[in-house]
Amino acid sequence: MAVEFVGMIRTADTSEIRPPSGPAVDRDYLRRFAQAHEEAGFDRVLIGYHSWDADGFAVASYAAAHTERLGFLLAHRPGFVAPTLAARKLATVDQLTGGRLAMHVISGASDTEQRRDGDYSDKPARYRRTDEYLDVVRRVWTSDEPIDHEGEFYRVAGARSEVKPVNGTLPIYFGGSSADAYRVGGKHADVFALWGEPLAETAEQIAAVRKSAAEHGRNPDDLGFSVSFRPIIGRTDAEAWQRAHEILGKITAGSSGAMLAFPAAERGVGSQRLLDAAGKGEVHDRALWTAPARATGAAGNSTALVGSPETVAKALLDYVDIGVTTLLIRGYEPLEDVVDWGKDLLPLVRQELANR
């Protein structure tokens, strides 16, 4: 049994407890951050997408030039680049990185953020567009002949690409928690990405996505699942909880300007689910802590796993036991946490899996 570990890199040293203090693109920090993930034993790193942030294609290319094995999970929002062009851009980066690229598809939860880049479509339309977009991208990658397409959002004639992904296609990760996300992700995703909810609720979502995959004629067992957490570890459980409350104090004090908030009415279903979990209790299962989600309005993956490395490793394995194949973890002290996890957390999880 194997599990994939995914981290997350950014171009500056910032988090909910660290306000930006330098340039938006710090090349030295980005290089060290990517290399720290590789040295810690991560399989991939996520490169996020925001309407105010650095271009992910360039970030992936730069980080790949300074690493050897690390994979990259490039977040991408359909709608801002034509699918034919996106297919070529993604294939080019994959070729230049030696097959280390995967695509993380995000349809967009916030109308406000979409409009910052000129997209005024509503959320149902965004999911329909994503569905059509991925149909075209896959056809460009896999067809040896020019393709034609005419749909609701895109019309192309004679589209072709001389550049293909190294392995013929890229792994597609797909984020979302709504019925539309289940429908489109069940059709297209290789890995369906969820935020860190309690075990029972996570199992319910896995079942819903598998059902959608079967309705699209796919084998549900072929679909992987990712769950995202913010681990907070210490030498002991007590030390970890002390650190956790210190972090929460900094979050609630509003010490960071790194997160750009959106109206509460525009929260995605995933954010609302995290807040619902927080409403039911602050601690769930073995070590899941919802207080940071409440404090941030669940603006992103914001639930923590708190405890010693042994406790957090067991908590991660609880999710593996219900069908999770990818563990996406990122820290409040981003680079330092990666170094600690590489020494104290990832080896424990992998050793347990090897012993099974």
From TrEMBL:
Q: Which GO terms describe its biological process?
A: alkanesulfonate catabolic process
Q: Which Gene3D superfamilies match?
A: Luciferase-like domain
Keyword Nucleotidyltransferase present in the record's keywords: the answer is: no
Q: Luciferase-like domain: which residues?
A: 16-325
Q: What name has this protein been given in UniProt?
A: Alkanesulfonate monooxygenase
Could you tell me the superkingdom of the organism this chain comes from? Bacteria
**Which PANTHER family is this protein grouped with?**
ALKANESULFONATE MONOOXYGENASE, BLL6451 PROTEIN
- Lineage, uppermost ranks: Bacteria, Bacillati, Actinomycetota, Actinomycetes, Pseudonocardiales
